[in-house]
Amino acid sequence: MDTPPYSKLAFFYNHIMQSINYKNWANYIFQLSHCSNGKINKVLELAAGNCVLANLLQNHFKNIFVCDKSIQMLNNAKQDNLSKVCCDMVSLPFNIEFDFIFSTFDSINYLTNEFLLNKFFKGIKSVISNEGCFTFDISLKNNSLKNVRDLNRTGEYEKIKYRQKSIYNESTQIHLNEFDIIMPDGKKYREIHKQRIYDFYFYFDVIEKNGLYVAECFDAFTFKDASPNSERAQFILKKEPE
């Protein structure tokens, strides 16, 4: 089966994500931005997708850059006043620094090997201001164990049939989500999402190797300390003083 263009999958993502309260999520990210010690002049969202969160955060920040490696996703975003850059988050092209950087939807889990993870955090250090901070959420083992059965599902939405198959391999730490979509005209499409579910403490080691440190680590969407038993964790990083 072919991999569909974004337009073929947009319906599906909108359908399965319609229960997400983006306003509450944006407010949580704004609260996390207080980790920055100085005035926030420039903000960067990584793997921004269709820029829903960045759009909501414009109520708090005036100068927001968004990046995503999918030009289709960025073009689908209806906000014309965001500075959009099509790039891979492990190869950031910026020669400016940002006071607040954020990434959501466990995008970091898509960096499925140590080389990419190191390259990513090294790049973050190069674009974060001395007083700035970077926050991101990650999915942990207990989240995969809890949801792997629920994510094996079929359904129909606006005459478009879909099947999601979810597989988590504890030994390889790889969590796969396969989406098969059958359009009303019978055409079939497939998209595969591959994530690596790293150990909780592994992140701390990689982060420290790249000149950053963990200022806070919360259970996602809360301000309670995260642990290896958490389902999701929210990291806040800062640059090590030179």
Which properties best describe this structure?
four-stranded antiparallel β-sheet, 242 residues, alpha/beta, seven-stranded mixed β-sheet, single chain
**What is the 3D form?**
globular
Strand content of the residues, in percent? 25-35%
Q: H/E element string?
A: HHEHEHEEHEHEEEEHEE
Bin the helical content.
25-40%
Radius of gyration: 18 Å
Distance between the termini: 51 Å
Number of strands: 11
Q: Residue ranges: pLDDT <50 for 5 or more in a row?
A: none
Largest sheet: 7 strands, mixed
Average per-residue pLDDT, rounded, comes to 90
Please state the structural category: alpha/beta
Strand order of the largest sheet: 3-2-1-4-5-11-10
Helix count from the secondary structure assignment: 7
Short description:
With 242 residues, this protein is of the alpha/beta class. It is built from seven helices and eleven strands.
List the helices and strands and how they pair.
Layout (H helix, E strand, L loop, with lengths): L5 H11 L5 H11 L10 E4 L5 H6 L6 E5 L2 H6 L6 E4 L11 E6 L10 H14 E12 L1 H7 L5 E5 L2 E10 L4 E9 L5 E9 L3 H10 L2 E8 L12 E8 L3
Parallel strand pairs: 1-2, 1-4, 2-3, 4-5
Antiparallel strand pairs: 5-11, 6-7, 7-8, 8-9, 10-11
Report on this model:
With 242 residues, this protein is of the alpha/beta class. The protein contains seven helices and eleven strands. It has a seven-stranded mixed sheet. Strand 7 and strand 8 form a beta hairpin.
